[in-house]
Amino acid sequence: MSAAMDTESTYSGYSHYSGHSKKAHRQGRDRHKSPRSKDGSRSEKSVTIQTPPAEPLLGNDASRAEEAQDDNWGETTTAITGTSEHSISQEDIARISKDLEDSVGLDCKRYLGLTVAAVLGLLVFLTPIAFILLPQILWRDDLEPCGTVCEGLFISVAFKLLILLIGTWALFFRQPKADLPRVFVFRALLSVLIFLFVFSYWLFYGVRILDSKDTNYQGIVQYAVSLVDALLFIHYLAIVLLELRQLQPMFTVKVVRSTDGESRYYSLGHLSIQRAALVVLENYYRDFTVYNPALLTASKSRAAKHMAGLKVYNVDGPGNNVTGQSRAMIAAAARRRDSSHNELYYEEADHERRVKKRRARLVVAVEEAFTHIKRLQAEEQQKAPGETMDPREAAQAIFPSMARALQKYLRTTRQQQYHSMESILQHLSFCITNNMTPKAFLERYLNPGPTLQYDKDRWFSKQWTLVSEEAVTSGLQDGTVFVLKCLDFSLVVNVKKIPFIKLSEEFIDPKSHKFVLRLQSETSV
User: Fold this and answer.
1) Which residues are within 8 A (CB) of 472 and not within 5 positions of it... i.e. 6 or more apart?
2) Is the pLDDT of residue 483 over 60?
3) Buried-state track 298-333, b at ≥16 Cβ within 10 A, e below 16
4) How far apart are CA 272 and CA 419, in angstroms?
5) Whole-number Cα distances in Å, 443 to 426, 448, 455
């Protein structure tokens, strides 16, 4: 029965959007046929293509119309409907085209870096082994006997190479977290240093050992051991440059979201601009509340309504004296603009009242729904095996009793685009499985969470562009400003250096803590 209700509500929602779509298209054709628009300087139109969610919450046409009337939704919406469950908008088209343009270059750069790192790693690990084996293969009969000393050196080389292999795997062979616009300078410098170092060892080995066919095998083995020791020191240098150098905080960055002004502060060490941008984005997905463009749309429409004033036209020409009437109308428009803050105050107060009311209804509905679920003990499960349900079935059984209250609350707070029916059922079954309370279930819906809390399909920010006046490979400096842009908004990052703190010490003698009680005649002591 619940499935039938879902299908009926989905169909009614699509019918509502389809009728609105036809009306919007007819109005657009009428405006196009008119010889002149109202504003002669503007003749372009913008059409927003939006489709309702694939799995809307439970509800009927009356509730949808009521919410649309309350929240002023759907006034300029054009929807494409059909039997398909998938939809696409203009923003999605822009994202797809940009991803197609950038994917080829990013993939080539990623695979090129992996190929260079793999070849250099093989060269590093095979070089000491080749130094030891080549004399044994080419002029084995002419080599001087080495004995126990060489065997001890073999064991040393083997364990040092094993340690170097483990350290290299832990430091370099990690799954990349992002595609940076430029190469990592320190990593590139270390790669060049390792290549030059190994090349110089091969050059010396070819001139002094291979050409002359040196018979001192112990010296050849010690030469290979010195190479492995030097590689271990280079690995230690890589740990210092890549990991330890950035740990000490040196800068404080302020991150501001351009649309709603939400801001956070973070402490960073010595990093380049592109790596600082990566750290900022990692913290953004965790700390910032999810971006909700529906709230911004409501505020913009309210501001446009308050800024609309009265226009005065002299229809009869300049000869008529309408100065008094014009001044009166202008004064009325000024008084209307002056009283707009009162309208804003009452509008926000009414919205807060409706949110509190529907929040209370939602809390009561969820608490009543959770009272019908009881975890069965092992003995009770054996007594009534036919009446038991798994968490998914239990969630589907109690969800209809809270669905309408949850739908109204999400629509009032404009969060309905982030929560589909399937995600709510999964969260409800998760709470039932782990014996969580109604408050734990409602925590996700009463307060907007960070971006990572929602599915990736609900994110409005996946592709970012770094905009900076300085080179992105340069280090952070005091006063550096860079911007991280995505399709819908941007993050403005301002860098400030942590000031140098001068801390002095003052010694207090414990014997100096002595006091005198002064008595006066008026006191009661």
Assistant:
1) 180, 181, 182, 272, 273, 274, 277, 466, 482
2) yes
3) beeebeeebeeeeeeeeeeeeeeeeeeeeeeeeeee
4) 38
5) 15, 9, 17
SS3 73: coil
Side chain identity, residue 133: L
Q: Whole-angstrom Cα distance, residue 394 to residue 246?
A: 50
Whose tokens are 């000031």? That residue is 499
Q: Give the DSSP H/E element, type plus range, for residue 257.
A: strand 251-257
Which CA distances in Å does 393 have to 8, 275, 396, 401, 423? 21, 47, 5, 14, 15
120-166 pLDDT, tens per residue? 889 999 999 999 998 888 888 888 888 888 889 999 999 999 999 99
Query: What's the rounded Cα separation, in Å, for the pair 57 and 7?
Result: 10
Question: Quick one: tokens of 17?
Answer: 């959007």
Pull the structure tokens for residue 470: 């300085």
- Measured on CA atoms in the order 514, 519, 523, 525, is the torsion positive or negative? positive
3-state DSSP: the chain helix, strand, coil percent, rounded to 5? 60, 5, 35
Nearest-angstrom CA–CA distance, 433 and 371: 15
State whether residue 253 is helix, strand or coil: strand
β-partners of residue 103 are none
* pTM: predicted TM-score of the whole model, two decimal places: 0.67
What is the number of helices (H) and of strands (E) in the chain?
A: 14, 5
- Give the whole-angstrom CA distance, residue 339 versus residue 108: 60
From CA 146, how far away is CA 154, in angstroms rounded?
A: 11
d(CA 353, CA 359): 10
**Cα-based distances in Å from 450 to 80, 486, 492:** 31, 17, 18
Instruction: Give the dihedral of Cα atoms 404, 405, 409, 410; nearest 10 deg.
Output: -40
Structure tokens at 332: 């009325």
Could you tell me which of 126, 113, 115 has the C-alpha nearest to residue 231? 126
Strand-pairing partners, residue 490, are 485
CB within 8 A of 357, min separation 6: which ones?
Answer: none
Return the structure tokens found at 420: 């589909």
| Residue 31 CB contacts under 8 Å (≥ 6 apart), including other chains | 37, 45
pLDDT 10s digits, 261-280: 899 999 999 999 999 999 99
